[in-house]
Records
---
Amino acid sequence: MGGLCPEDLRARADTERWMDWATAQVQPVMTPVFWNLIRTSTKKRNHVAVAENTVATNRTMEVLDWGLARRLYLGGSALTIGDIVAGVWVHRWYALPIERPNLPRVRAYYERLQEHPAYRLHVSQPLW
């Protein structure tokens, strides 16, 4: 299957679950924050949408913090494709000019992701 897709079926299921989580839970609430704060002129920003979606985005990151309680990566002890998908959103969350809760496991996870040269090269770059 390759190095990023776990052979162990439970780890693979976890990886795929976290990929679905990133797509279905994080993307819909973080995108309005990103578009309003980064891609929309100051005069046209929807500040209510930013505020509401920032709260929702922070809640999704609290779920990630919970999910990382007993593991280094989303599929277990090694980097998987699920970490690539989720890691993009984690980077965006830290790059956005918003208030966010202190989530130590998410912070440590983000720092671990940045130890991977490919993540630094392709993901951990300025968004604008």
---
Amino acid sequence: MNPEDYAQQKAAASGSSFYYAFLFLPAERRAAITAFYAFCREVDDVVDEVRDPALAAEKLNWWRREVAQSYAGTPQHPATRALMPHTQPFGIEARHLQAVIDGCQMDLDQNRYFDFANLQKYCFLVAGIVGEVAARIFGQTQPQTTHYAHHLGLAFQLTNIIRDVGEDATRGRIYLPVSDLQRFDVKAHELIKRGTAPGMDTADFHQRFAALMQFQCERALRTYDEALALLPEPDRRAQKPGLMMASIYRTLLNEIAADPVLVLTQRVSLTPLRKFWLAWKVQALGRL
């Protein structure tokens, strides 16, 4: 399997909403974003799949060396071999890739965030930088588009955090800010137990949890609005793939907001057909 096929397979296998937006890109841009996404998946999988923190840290260090080696002209991994031909044409710098690794390192170093400002720093590394690179690949011409991309990346990551609250809690990770938990009187141990521990008043917990999650959903929706307001008109056409992803993610977020308690026990998702339909509508109409 050549590097390009490897990257394509990695991106498709993830089932991510991002993949549906890539389908509408011209071949060269589609190959670039697919390779970049494959790299991000490889690094993220280290944290999600390697249970030994020491081993995960060593694997992340391997990826740091691989990035440096790749920009020196000798990539080894099929994901970086697929990506390197696109770095110069689309302005993808080593610092972008290293920032993604740094964000995943944060997952190993901490599993709580005191307030929203702390959480934003994490989101910037794992999603804002990804948005910045994606905007360059899609065809950015205006400097302000970078600010749009950072905000949109934040909105995407907040949506992921909301969707994965239950799944993350089983791994001991709680991304919802501690200050928000305190505001809505939701305890970390209640999230980890998903409100079902012996002697726990489940109905009371669900009420408090639903209020907490409504607050999270409203903040994420505002972040989408703020991001879209930052997109310069001259770049709107080129940035359609980001708008497609925003349409898919906002639809998912609205579904969660309708019954936020569901995220404790299941992964709320849209069908592949629905994702494709939402992406196609943006492609056809040019707006969300």
---
Amino acid sequence: MSQPIRFYHRNAIREITDAPVTRTVLQYLREDAHCTGTKEGCAEGDCGACTVVVGERNEAGGVSFKAVNACIQFLPTLDGKALYTVEDLRQPDGTLHPVQEAMVECHGSQCGFCTPGFVMSMWSLYEKHGHEHQCANRTVPSRDDISNALTGNLCRCTGYRPIVDAAVRMFEAPAPKAPVDIAALSAQLATIARDDTFHYEHKGQQFDAPRCVEALAQIKAAQPATRILAGSTDIGLWVTKQMRELGNIVYVGQIDALRRLETSADWIEIGAGVSVETAYGELAKHYPELTEMWKRFASLPIRNAGTLGGNIANGSPIGDSMPGLIALGARVTVRGGEIEREMALEDLYVAYQKKDMAEHEFVVGLKVPTRTGARANLQFRTYKLSKRFDSDISAVCAAFSFIPDGDLIREPRIAFGGMAATSKRAIHAEAVLRDAQWHEATAQAAMIALGNDYAPLSDMRATSNYRLEAAKNTLYRFWLETRPHNPLPKAALDVRAVLAAGALA
């Protein structure tokens, strides 16, 4: 039997029983709830005009807030959560919230179309750093933190500086007259929490949100064609841009076991339901070299909604997570029915949009080795080349690693995105590096070997020639950043000698 979609919005619990399974949160807001402050700009999670904030009860009994794109989130995924829009910021006496007041004072709005989305991204940051202005644990974010929080919002009028100024100013303003009552909100959400699978139907299409991996496995085993939905940052576009029919959907966002993130001495274990933002936050603690990729991976609202497991399962050849994870030696676990199996991440990808997974199988999680033992001195870098710094798809994404043994290279791993039909290792270049001395001749020979590893395509982002030259240059950059302090004399830097030794054979 179909159950109503229940969520908290506008100071009340809402129940929806007659909305299409793929109705977006934005469509609900504008057409049903008549909350028209939230705008549609791109309908693909890129411009941020539709940014809203979703609240969920956390393990501590509080509520965690995150900014997401309403245009690509499906309404049933709100079940058990709280939804906040720009209309909720108005104070009881009609005055503006400090976030909005700061935008006015700093002239952060001109045409105004994008302003509600910016305001909600800023409000999410405001809540994250202490929802009450004078609370004991309140901290003020840096301008870098503010810029990161606004990566998902585009504005064609202001040039962003006054908006960033407003985000600084909002923490200096008096506290809001009616701050969010976290305890009361948590109590409200507790009343609509579900202990078992949430099942919703509309005109024959089904939406299930199980609470355990076993239930997910049963659903996929019984109906292998059921579409798995995680963050909706890709599948949402199938509906809004491609007008595709998705069939039945199983949503994994309520499975606690898939949202676990655990670190032991040897492994960082990341459940398939852990958000990209949370996963990279943990990975960057162990591999600070991932920090720039973390901040440049899409935008904060996309990282808040999207999951690392979903990015891996999607397997796009231009997915930014895979090259770095492959270079680190990550392993992925998939499950079908009651059977789990584990493999190297690069072995998951067979061909373009094809994976070593049966239709009823799904990604359970990922394991990334820690920097211990022989890996303590691991040399690792990852580089992203794109036309925009923030929120852009890579033309080339490169990742390199090896374990130094004196001046010798052990266990080299090179992976690229955007260079082939899958995220692919450079086996010829790795062969040049393996057990060789790490000097410029070796690096240049490996650069040449990349031509045997990849034959990239030309498209709207880059030409084939550009991609190959850029790939070679990133390898040379890796050499420059990790070369020994006492490089060999010029007489030893003979690329031809390395090639003649059969390193490319």
---
Amino acid sequence: MNETRREQIRSNAKYLREVRPIDPEEIHEYVEGQPHPAAITQVLREDAYELGLVERADGAFEPVAEEPVTGPFDGVEAFPADYSMAIEELLVAEYGAGWPDGESGDAIRERVRDLKTDYLWGNDVEYDHETALAYALYHLPDYYAAVQYVLSVLAADGLLGRKLRVLDVGAGVGGPALGLYDLLPEDALVEYTAVEPSSAVDVLTAMLDETGRNFHATVHETTAEAFEPTGAYDLVLFSNVLSELDDPAAVVERYAESVADDGSLVGLAPADRNTATNLREVERDVENGLSVYAPTVRLWPGERPTDEGWSFDVAPDIEVPPFQRRLDEEASDPDHEPGEFENVDVQYAYTILRPDGTQRIDFRPDVSRYAKMADMDDHVSNRIDVAAIKLSHDLTDDDDANPLFKIGDGSEGVAHYAVLTRGTALNDALETAAYGDLLLVENVLALWNDDEGAYNLVVDDETVVDRVPAGG
């Protein structure tokens, strides 16, 4: 369609959007040559984001709502059936209908095992098509869930608009894209740009086909270092990719320049020690130009943590996806343990960075009341008050052990843990608070744990713990 007709369509859409829903059959009467309504629809789809239009199920277009995304987030119970079918279709196309059986099943299981070994030892992975399929089979469901838990933080605080320009750096096989799509309401409008250099692009493209009419996706098959972002993005995502970059902080700093003034840069990483602490290192390296919005809020102005920074959140397990169950059930080699190819844990480290200087916890401790963790050595063997962010779930794996929680205030040089030795109604907030909540702790005993090289703050029946919900 020539530019004159396209501009006539745009002009009519701009006028009608202020009056009533835009019907392509109505517009075609006012366009030179009266092009078919389907051609009108195509132009409106191509220019939908710029025009601020969402396409309805009946084929009409209307302005996207200005209100941010709201409503409760109830978590993720399962990987959706439609996406499971899309993955199985890819597996069938590559290996045939009996893909979990025989030589093909053995080959897939070997690929998954290789991926797990490479991940454990931090080896580089070369993604051919079969490796990308194995990666999707094993990792896509939990990554799909994790990104929703993280982005729901922004939604809960009214910081996730219904009209979003999103840049997904290292988009992989589509976990972040699908998670974002399902988190948003049907009337959201998204201009989604993916950057992915590997053969995962084939899987990513197939998964993007499962998104709806108002999720406008473009894929760039190039590296994060080579891609040149244009304009400002409401959301820049680095999901499970920072540990694969040679200089992740430099890459993040470059992309931070493309974050809108009221936008967010979000980094996710697996919960294991290496990748989670690497995420914190990047966070600390780039915070001169970005504020840490969540979860590791800096409560004390001018302070920055220098501890190891291993902190991660844990969400409920998702249901075993049918394709993972099939692959696991068909394994017959003697080294196989049931559940080896099922990956339903949702555990992740994350950071949300913003250019506007905001923090999710708007609290500044009074130095005359609260002890700063940077000065904890001065308080050993004393009872003190502290203000701290809860940075873990219970870290013990023994039912008889005292519950143990990582905490921080943004000034700590070594790890701090709250140890619950005697629970009461006045200190139960330590256990019930959510990851990232602010805890105001009164009369806690500060001790040094020489074995762990960390401070233990002992919460007993003389301690009071008040919870201040994050974002509240």
